[in-house]
C-alpha cells in the first residue's frame, strides 16, 4: 500500500511540475454533439454544443476551445472559419457572436444582436456568409451585416411583409445579387444596393419555406423544407426542381469543387455538374448508431459531424471504415451526478425532474475519467439500465463501483466492466406497485458505504425504502412507513453516513430522515419550529463536515444541524440557519435559494451549488463567502449546478453544470494521517512562475514555519486541512530574494516533525 501511495505521489508531482503555469480552471467538455463545421485548406473546425475543436489534416493535431478559453456556455447554432482573416466565428441561439483569433487564441464577444429590441426567442444565429470583408449573418429575424476589418456591426435587413421580422436560414451571393432562404420564400436584392434596409428593395423569387441556398460553380441552388433541390434559371428568374432528397437537408456547402448535402442519415457529394459521386449512409458506421448533422471535405477526406459520436472521417474516393476524430471527453455535457476519488472520476447522466419524475427515461450509460483519459460505457453495456442518477465508489476498492438507476435498479461495475444489474429478480430491491403488479419501476438513488463495507441503498416510493447490501451478499430491508408521512409518495435524494454510523437520508416530502440500526431508531428533521426548522420539506442534498455538523440543502434554502451526535442525545433535532451581516443588515445565508449540492473540502470550507445562481464557496462556519462563481465572473458554462465533488488528494473541485463539467484547482486537500508524504511544489520556483508555493501532505492543524538559510523567519501559518500556500513574500510585505528556504513542519502536539527545502529563483 505504501508503494502504491509513493507511486501516486510521484505521478502527482510530475503532473504538477508540467502544469505549474496552467490556469486555476480546467474544462472537461463533451465534443460529441456536433452543431456546425467549417474548413480551411488543411484544418477542419467543428462546434459541439458549447465548445470548439479543430483538427489539422496534415499533422493530425487536435485543438480545443471552451469556456475556460472565453467561449460562452450557451448553445452554439452556427460556425464559420474565415481563411482570409484566420478567425473562427461562432454564433449562438441567444444571438451572441464570438470571434476566435486562431493566431493567438484570443476570444472576443459581441452582444449587439442580444441587445436588439426584439423578442429573445428570435435572435438565434443560423448561418454566416463572407463576402468582400463583410459577414452576412442570417438570424431568426433577418440579416445582420458585420465588418470583419473593423469588427463593427453594420445594417440590419428586415425583409418580411411590410418590413417585419422573418426567419432567414441561409444566404448566398450569385450574379451580383444576395439571395436569402427564408421561412417566407427566397428573397433577393442587388448586393451593391446601399439601401437594403428598405424591405421594398427585396424581391420574392419563390414562395414557401426554404432552408438552404448556395452558389455552386456557375449556378445557384436552393433546398426547401421537404428536401427538394432546386436550380435557379436565369432566364425565367425562378427555381426549378431537379431532385428530391428522402429527408430534409440539415447542412449544405460548396468546398473543394464539391457540393455537399447532409441529412439525418446521408451525406451526398455532388461534382460541379451536379452528378452524385458519393453517398455516405449512417448505417455504414458499424461501431454505433449515429445521425449526421453536417459534413465537409478536405483533400480526399470527408469530415462528418454527428449528433452522438462527434466527428467521423472517411475517404472520399473509396468506401472504407470510419475513424473518430473527436477530442476525449464525457459522453454528454449535462452530467447529473458524479463521484471523485484520488485517481478517478465517475459520471452519470440520467436525471429526474424537480419532483423526482425520471420520464422520459434516459439511455446514456456512464463515464470514467482517469490518467488514461475518458472511458465512456454506453447504454448497450449496462444491461439496458435507464436513467442512471448517481454513482458510488467503494472506498476500500476503487475498482468496484455501484451506479443507481432511477428506474432499473442497481448496477455493479468491476474493473470498468458492468457485471450485474440488481433488480427485483436477483436482490432485495423492490419495484413500486401503485402502477400495477406487472409494471417494473425500481427507483434506486442514494447509496453509501459504511465503515464495515456494507452498501446502504435507498429506493423511492415503496414501504421498505432503506436497504443494505451486506459484504456477505445478503440484503436486508427497513420499513419506512413508520417515519414517513406517505412512503409510497416519497422520493429519496442523497444519503450520507456519519462517524457514529447514523444514516442521513434526504427526502422529497419529509425533510431529512436519520436511522441507526444499532438501536433500530428513526428520527426526522422537517419544517416547523418544533419539528426541525427546515425551510422546505424537499431536501436535495446533505453533507457531514469535518466538525460533525450536518449541512442541509433544500429547495428553499440552507440549514445546519450543529452536531450529528444529537441523534443519540436529543428528542427532536433542530437545524439552524446561518445568519450573516450584509451591508450592515442581518441576512440568512442563501435565503430562498434552491440548493442542489454541498461538498466539504479539506479545510472544512463548503462548496454549495444552486439551481440558478452558480456556486458559492463559504468558510467553515458559513460566515464568510470566499467566492461566488457565476457565468459572468468565471468559466462556468451555466449557473445551473447539478453536482459538486472534490478530489481530496489534489484539492481539485469538480463542478457539474447543465452545460458542461469544469473544475477549480483548489488547495484545500484532505489532511493526512502523518507527515511521511509531505512535499513542496513547484520546486524550484522559476522567475516566470507567478503562482504560490504549495506545501502539501500535511496533518490538520500542523504548524508550518519558513525561514531563509540564515534562520530568519519569513512566514508562519497553521494548516487547515492537508495543504497550505505561500505567496513567497515575507509576511506579505515584499517578495523574498533568490535563495534556499527551509520549511519546518510540526504536528499540533509536536509529536511529529518534518523539514523540507524550496529553491526560489528571481
Write up what this structure looks like.
The two termini are 39 Å apart. Helix content is 3%, strand content 45%. With 762 residues, it is mainly β. The longest helix is centred in the first third of the chain and has 17 residues, at 2-18. The relative contact order is 0.07. Mean pLDDT is 93; it is low at 1-23. The protein is built from 2 helices and 64 strands. A 4-stranded antiparallel sheet has the order 1-57-56-55, with no helix packed on it. Strands 2-3-4-5 form a 4-stranded antiparallel sheet, with no helix packed on it. Strands 6-7-8-9 form a 4-stranded antiparallel sheet, with no helix packed on it. It is globular.
Count the strands? Answer: 64
Strand content: 35-45%
Shape: globular
Contiguous helical run count: 2
Describe this structure in a few short sentences:
With 762 residues, the protein is mainly beta. It has a four-stranded antiparallel β-sheet with strand order 1-57-56-55, with no helix packed on it. A four-stranded antiparallel β-sheet has the order 2-3-4-5, with no helix packed on it.
Write the layout of secondary structure elements.
Blueprint (H helix, E strand, L loop, with lengths): L1 H17 L6 E4 L7 E4 L3 E5 L4 E5 L5 E4 L10 E7 L4 E6 L4 E5 L5 E4 L14 E7 L2 E6 L3 E5 L4 E6 L10 E7 L2 E6 L2 E6 L12 E4 L3 E7 L2 E6 L3 E6 L4 E7 L6 E5 L2 E5 L3 E5 L5 E6 L10 E7 L2 E6 L4 E5 L7 E2 L12 E4 L4 E4 L17 E5 L2 E5 L10 E6 L6 E6 L3 E6 L2 E6 L21 E6 L5 E5 L6 E4 L5 E4 L13 E6 L5 E5 L4 E5 L4 E5 L13 E6 L5 E5 L2 E5 L4 H4 L9 E4 L2 E4 L6 E6 L5 E5 L4 E4 L6 E5 L11 E6 L5 E6 L2 E6 L13 E3 L11 E4 L6 E6 L4 E6 L4 E4 L12 E8 L6 E8 L2
Antiparallel strand pairs: 1-57, 2-3, 3-4, 4-5, 6-7, 7-8, 8-9, 10-11, 11-12, 12-13, 14-15, 15-16, 16-17, 18-19, 19-20, 20-21, 22-23, 23-24, 24-25, 26-27, 27-28, 28-29, 30-31, 31-32, 32-33, 34-35, 35-36, 36-37, 38-39, 39-40, 40-41, 42-43, 43-44, 44-45, 46-47, 47-48, 49-50, 51-52, 52-53, 53-54, ...
Keywords: Signal
InterPro entries: PorZ_N (IPR048954), Quinoprotein_ADH-like_sf (IPR011047), Reg_prop (IPR011110), Secre_tail (IPR026444), WD40/YVTN_repeat-like_dom_sf (IPR015943)
Protein name: T9SS type A sorting domain-containing protein
